[in-house]
Amino acid sequence: MTMSAFEKHRHVIDFTLSSLLRRKGKNFSLLAVYTFVIFLVASVMFLTHSIKEDAYMVLTDAPEITVQKLMAGRHDLIPLSYMEPIREIRGVQSVEPRLWGYYFDGTNKANYTLVVKKEMNNTPGAISVGNGVARNLLVKENGIIPFKAYDGSYLFLKIKDVFSSESELVSSDLILISEQDFRKIFAFPPDVATDLVLRVRNPRELTTIATKINQMFPDTRPILREEILRTYEAVFDWRGGLVIIILWGAALAFVILAWDRATGLSAEEKREIGILKAIGWETSDVLLMKFWEGAVISFSAFSFGLLLAYAHVYFASFILFESTIKGWSIIYPQFRLTPFVSIYQIATLFFLTVVPYTVTTIAPSWRAATIDPDMVMRA
Amino acid sequence: MIFHGPILGLLLGSLLVSFMLVYSAFYAVQILLRWDMRSGSEIQLGLERRTYLISVLITYALGFQLLSLFLFIYTADHLAPLFVGAMCAAGSLNVNPWGYPTIVLKIVNFILGAVWLVINFTDNRAWDYPLIRKKYALLLCIAPLILAETIFQTAYSAGLHPNIITSCCGTLFTADAAGVTSGIIALPPIPLAVTFYTLMGATLICGVYYRRAGKGVTLFSILSSLTFLASGVALISFIPLYFYELPTHHCPFCLLHKEYLYVGYALYLAFLGGVISGLGVGILKPFSGVESLKGVVPGIQRRLALASLVSNGISLLIVVYGVLSSNLILLD
Amino acid sequence: MIRLNEIRKVFNTGKPNEFVALQGINLTIEAHRAVALTGPSGSGKTTLLSILGCMARPTAGRILLGDREITSLPERFLTEIRRSTFGFIFQQYNLIKGISVLENVMIPAYPTGEKHASLKERATKLLNLFNVGSKADSKPEWLSGGEAQRVAIARALINNPSVIVADEPTAHLDTRLSLELMAILKDLKEEGKTLLIASHDPIVHSSEVVDRVVAMRDGQMQ
Ligand SMILES: Nc1ncnc2c1ncn2[C@@H]1O[C@H](COP(=O)(O)OP(=O)(O)O)[C@@H](O)[C@H]1O
Ligand SMILES: [Mg+2]
What we know:
A: alpha+beta, Barwin-like endoglucanases, 2 domains, six-stranded mixed beta sheet, 12 helices, elongated, B: mainly alpha, 72% helix, binds adenosine-5'-diphosphate, binds magnesium ion
């Protein structure tokens, strides 16, 4: 019983494959469009997912709480005098001032993120640059970069090393600098910092501590790491979702094509199914054949689409949609994403593409399968 | 509302499944009103052909349902970071009142759909469609439930606003929090474990006895269903404790994570397989008296019983393995 | 034995183009006999064959196959009966283009789930029996009329049916090939098969193979 059921499937699959091959032209164009739609949707999904994961990787090392000062609703420099009272709060392990800012390089028209690293303080005049910066400026180790300071004078800093990190998203525009040089370039007052970062012993106390800081200094905004993660998550998902909606336009066109292909059985195909039924195939056997036909087409399109999208996102740097999703610093075009592909994404993709395609083909398959067997007896 | 690939996929899937069910229900009404086996009229021939379409629609719908159950849990899991306090699916499902009802409906609908296919399969073995009215009446009951599921799921997705404070699984599933789920936890895990093992054992014994002696169909079916309910409770009360090796983490969804080798999938599928085949055995019993089904029903029942035994055996093995290989020991 | 009782077939019931194709057909066909249906084009021969061969269900009336009433069997059962009891030979051969002759012969047995190897062996034997074994790997498009007809017969026999149903089998054959076909049918009858042939070709109904001729006109037996 089971053995013969297996043989039956084998026979039907064999026959289905040879039928598909006999109608190469028709099936190939369908497969091409199907693959393209899957490729588009998969590309967007892979990209959003990877950027998000990249950002996550960066943020896991981020401090649990960042305290910013607000001035008229805008981010302002925070007085170092705020540090001591905050340190006194129960549960706060440490408070550190952070100095960072953006530097616009007019010659190269690029924006860099300048961050003060304690380790750099011992070697004023030296900087450490991310590989994106090095690539953009065509500089190597020991090269000199001129920085235009606040008063128009130049500060020449020497590259101590070029670093790269797991995620290019971070390292590409980053320059590490000493506190002295940083303050010199921007005329940064000595008694303030960009923001304060806190280490907290117990993650359960995060909200309590944040509330206390806010009570103590009503002009500050404590930001939890979780909130940043949430924001990233929401923003990227939102962008990805939006693009998917737009792509549905393409998908819809595809569904119409699939419908047309499935409904518009050629006379030849109709005759064939009629013959099959007349010589002993049952409606459900033809339905089984149609199922395998759909499965083969969907599986091929799905695999090709996925592979192409993978290559597109991770090797070709998403050339087709560059600006849609990214579009921040001009340094990025070069960056490579870390591949992240999960069953979750594949299941999602399945629901967005294969499920609608399959539903589209059910009724036409059934209509084909219920052709009258005695039709073939009439010319 | 969150614009999110998986959510869009889930909504699209549910919409399509609903559409398939409404379409089937429309023809179910036609069949209930106009079916006449003795007639060779074109209407009757047309209706008989429709039954093929409906079988195919329900089969596909069922497949999509199963996938969407897991995708839904998975999505809830992935959304957790968007909600303060939510650490996994258990928390994000609690963001609004639609989350858990959606899951429950997804499970109920899957079981009903599978039972429908069992009845349909049986009916198709007979030459006179003896169950045609019953199965299409059942279909008419399933369709509104599928619609409800779609509505619930849409309401859940629409009600997702990042940052809503929700309880995470840490607080949601601890005994001092109020609510139904915590009520289950408040039951001592040991008596629950005993109940689970007893029911599981009884089901297995009864199933073997049925396969041997051909008797005890009803009891077996009832026991299978009770075992499924007990498994549901066990999934929130004691099974996770052993897998996570944490005496307070009761979340049944984290079992689907990679850290636990995706054991949740096997466990969920085995539980579902057990209840569907076990229920199927009992549901077919009244039909064994139908003339054209006399020679058919016992064979199908035996195969279902075997499937149920295998499924329940697998789930029992997984649970026992989890308990034995765990470093956690429940004392009270 | 096949018995038809007051068979009626109506097409497009209730529509303006409603058409009664068969009416009041009472017919008993004994096993191991050859029956020919004759009559002008449009008289309902093909329709009657398709009902006899379990391809279509009558609008009214009863059909008995042996002792079994099969009138209102669902399609899946009718198909099973059709597959195991009847072998069909069509006017246009109806071979599937693009696949090999051998596969064409095997196709009717696919749903039975027979092992590929044994099925292939039986199909090859049948092709050899009808002297088209050498064409096993060719495509049906390349066959001559006579070869195609013999492949079609091999296909009709693959499930070892007890009844052979042939609709205008000589329509596309010249006299020599028609006589050759009748010889094959004679052999089949001698093997114990029942033959049902619809044809208005005198070669068929004047043939010694045919035991009984049923004349039809306007959907009725005469
Ligand atoms: N599917 C159909 N719908 C409508 N009319 C049909 C159909 N099939 C056959 N007929 C009609 O039934 C009549 C009998 O046809 P047929 O049995 O093919 O006659 P014969 O084989 O004797 O030439 C013809 O007039 C034909 O037009
Ligand atoms: Mg004719």
